[in-house]
């Protein structure tokens, strides 16, 4: 831990603690038959989370993530206000940071890890005036912005996370209902816990809890008008994707309901259907009879 500019800081990865490859392992959708792949490339100063997100194999879904290793690791973050991610360079995609305070033993039948509650928050890097990848950006995620989920669904009745015993941390790239795919890259200088949220005048954006798009979202907040317009456009894009998929689902449901109704009608009134078919086949237009 260190004191920086009057702010108590707990360096979790990077910063005072150099990045170590053995601290991380992949957890991608390949366990479900997908083809996404993630990596975490480590140097003393940078941990680069990168890979490829494939959404075609699983029909629009997909995820690629790196999680901390070790079943007996534990972090006490109860004296801190949230997580700060310092990014040296990153793309403009949306990422998810995940915490767990409980790990279950592997399933005795198949050997796979059993599901437990996760606490997640999505974030994007704040905008910059220069085009291209973002450089030297910070994101702060307060504990209140983490959403409890279980097996991919929000769990509103879950207990708050036990910050005294955080067992695992993960960083994830996911599709958000097909809104993003392909290559991704996020080069992080550090992941730290801060004792206090940055004051409003700081350049560090604060990720705030909002209604969930997939499993909850975090929005970099800024006082700049240009930043607000930038995020408004991103939000409109995700809303458009969500509405399009909702309309497609409603249309498919209506077609299926009509098909079931017609099928049941034919089963209930088979003779009426045969009579209609017979009348149609035996009908001869009057003009044809006159000509004959």
Describe the structure.
By secondary structure, the protein is an alpha+beta fold. 28% of the residues are buried. The strands form three sheets. Strands 1, 2, 4, 5, 7, 10 and 14 form a seven-stranded antiparallel beta sheet that branches. Strands 3-6-13-8-9-11-12 form a seven-stranded antiparallel beta sheet, with no helix packed on it. It has a two-stranded antiparallel ribbon with strand order 15-16. β1 (2-4) and β2 (7-14) form a beta hairpin. The protein has helices at 225-268, 270-282, 286-291; strands at 2-4, 7-14, 24-26, 37-42, 47-53, 63-68, 82-90, 95-100, 118-123, 134-142, 147-150, 153-154, 168-174, 182-194, 207-210, 217-220. The N and C termini lie far apart (103 Å). It has a single domain (9-215), classed as Galactose-binding lectin (Jelly Rolls, Sandwich), CATH 2.60.120. The model is unreliable at 209-238 and 286-292 (pLDDT under 50).
Poorly predicted sequence stretches spanning 5 or more consecutive residues: 209-238, 286-292
Terminal residue distance: 103 Å
Q: Any idea how many domains?
A: 1
Q: Estimate the mean pLDDT confidence.
A: 80
Q: How many beta-strand segments?
A: 16
Q: What's the multimeric state? A: single chain
| Count of alpha and pi helical runs | 3
- Global shape: globular
Helix-strand category: alpha+beta
Taking all Cα atoms into account, the compactness measure Rg is 27 Å
Supply the CATH superfamily name. Galactose-binding lectin
SSE ordering? EEEEEEEEEEEEEEEEHHH
The top level CATH class name: Mainly Beta
Give me the CATH architecture, please.
Sandwich
CATH topology heading: Jelly Rolls
State the major sheet: 7 strands, antiparallel
Please give the share of residues in helix.
Answer: 10-25%
Strand content: 25-35%
GO molecular function, one term: unfolded protein binding
Protein name: NADH:ubiquinone oxidoreductase intermediate-associated protein 30 domain-containing protein
Domain NADH:ubiquinone oxidoreductase intermediate-associated protein: 20-187
Transmembrane segments: 246-262
């Amino acid at each position: 831990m260190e004191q920086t500019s009057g702010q108590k800081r707990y360096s979790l990865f990077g910063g005072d603690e150099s990045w170590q490859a053995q601290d991380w392992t992949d957890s991608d959708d390949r366990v479900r038959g997908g083809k996404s792949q993630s990596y975490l490339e480590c140097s003393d100063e940078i941990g680069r989370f990168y890979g490829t997100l494939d959404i075609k194999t699983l029909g629009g879904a997909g995820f690629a993530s790196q999680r901390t290793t070790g079943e007996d690791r534990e972090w006490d973050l109860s004296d801190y206000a949230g997580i700060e991610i310092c990014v040296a360079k990153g793309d403009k995609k949306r990422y998810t940071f995940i915490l767990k305070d409980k790990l279950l033993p592997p399933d005795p039948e198949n050997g796979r890890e059993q599901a437990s509650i996760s606490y997640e928050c999505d974030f994007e890097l704040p905008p910059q005036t220069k085009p291209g990848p973002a450089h030297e950006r910070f994101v702060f995620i307060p504990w209140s912005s983490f959403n409890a989920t279980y097996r991919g669904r929000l769990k509103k009745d879950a207990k708050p996370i036990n910050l005294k015993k955080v067992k695992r941390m993960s960083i994830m790239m996911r599709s958000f209902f097909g809104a993003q795919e392909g290559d991704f890259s996020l080069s992080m200088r550090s992941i730290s816990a801060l004792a206090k949220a940055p004051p409003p005048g700081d350049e560090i954006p604060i990720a705030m809890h909002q209604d969930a798009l997939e499993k909850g979202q975090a929005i970099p907040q800024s006082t700049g008008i240009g930043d607000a317009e930038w995020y408004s456009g991103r939000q409109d894009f995700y809303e458009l994707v969500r509405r399009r998929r909702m309309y497609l689902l409603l249309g498919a449901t209506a077609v299926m309901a009509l098909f079931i109704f017609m099928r049941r009608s034919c089963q209930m009134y088979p003779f009426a259907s045969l009579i209609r078919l017979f009348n149609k086949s035996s009908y001869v237009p009057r003009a044809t009879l006159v000509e004959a």
